[in-house]
Amino acid sequence: MYNSVRTAGTGDEQVLEYAPLVKRIAYYLLNKLPDSVLVDDLIQAGMLGLLDALKNYDAAQGASFETYAGIRIRGAMLDEVRRSDWTPRSVHKKSREVSAAIREIELKTSEDAKPAQIAECLDISLDEYYKILQDSTNSRFFSVEELSESGDSFLEDYTDSKLNPEDIFKQNSFQQSLAESIESLPEREKLVISLYYNEGLNLREIGEVLSVSESRVSQISSQAMLRLKSRMSEWTSGEVEGLF
Q1: Burial annotation 66-89 (CB, 10 A radius, 16+ → b, else e)
Q2: Which are the contacts of 235, defined by CB distance < 8 A and separation ≥ 6?
Q3: pLDDT tens digit string along 121-170?
Q4: Where are the alpha helices (DSSP H) in the chain?
Q5: Which CATH number belongs to the domain containing residue 166 in this structure?
Q6: Same domain for 191 and 228?
Q7: Which of 67, 143, 165, 233 has the fewest other C-beta atoms within 10 Å?
Q8: Contacts of 234 (CB under 8 A, 6+ apart)
Q9: pLDDT tens per residue, range 25-64
């Protein structure tokens, strides 16, 4: 990797100085991605993001280089994971069907849709429904797409001066809507999301906190994400669809 850095004409000193940032972001993301994702692949993609940041950074935009580079590095890593998404289309399709069923039930009842109701709406068994949740958890999109709203510290102090007021309004409105949707989740689902994204616990550790199996935590977290998607349906079209 460093040989390609040298031939790219970028100063070795700058690359070596910020290489630890690439590794730090890679391991940060790795904790939130499936086991099939390799840290070396993240680092390789992140180094390309670093090179891009070194080439395009403009101090006049107001952000520090480390902040700007962190965003480009992280973005390059997530793009690489998305490009290598192995998830069968059927898994995505079934997940969308679950979200649609949740929305239909909750609009009709004004209550949280329960697993048995969702399975009945989809005309499948409860075991089949839990299998869909497990497949959703195992697919790469499960954690990747939620990372954009997971409170990543590398983004907190960055302001993109190129955003116009309308874009900023839309971004702030989305954030507020997402926060309200998370707050409205059933208590156990909300707790799992909080422990995973805010406290940084893995599924096994969350299972120990809740005194349930890791697979059960996986089901709860997957159902929470699909419920969020259903409740954020007004945002899940066009440019914002990729967030889910």
Answers
A1: eebbbbbbbbbbbebbeeeeebee
A2: 174, 177, 243
A3: 999 999 999 989 887 765 543 343 444 434 343 333 333 434 444 454 45
A4: 2-7, 12-30, 39-56, 65-83, 89-109, 115-122, 126-138, 141-144, 165-183, 187-193, 203-210, 214-231
A5: 1.20.140
A6: yes
A7: 165
A8: 177
A9: 998 888 777 666 788 989 999 999 999 898 888 888 777 8
Q: How many domains does the chain have?
A: 2
In single-letter form, the type of residue at position 96 comes to R
The reported pTM is 0.54
Residue type, 117: Q
Residues 11 and 106 grouped into a single domain = no
Are residues 93 and 78 part of one domain? no
The first and second tokens of residue 164, run together, are 């116009």
Q: Does 78 share its domain with 132? A: no
* pLDDT (0 to 100) of residue 165: 44
The separation between the first and the last C-alpha atoms of the chain, rounded to the nearest angstrom, is: 32
Note whether 75 and 159 are same-domain residues. Answer: no
- Six-digit token pair at 149? 């709203």
What's CA 67's distance to the chain center, in Å?
19
- CATH number where 20 lies: 1.10.1740.10
Q: What percent of the chain has pLDDT over 90?
A: 29
Same domain for 152 and 67? no
State the Cα–Cα distance between residues 26 and 94, nearest whole angstrom: 30
Cα–Cα distance measured from residue 106 to residue 186, given in angstroms and rounded to the nearest whole number: 12
Asked whether residue 123 falls in the same domain as residue 43, the answer is no
Task: Write out the residue range of the structural domain in which residue 36 sits.
Answer: 2-83
Looking at 29, 48, 83, the residue that finishes a domain is 83
Span 227-238, average pLDDT: 72
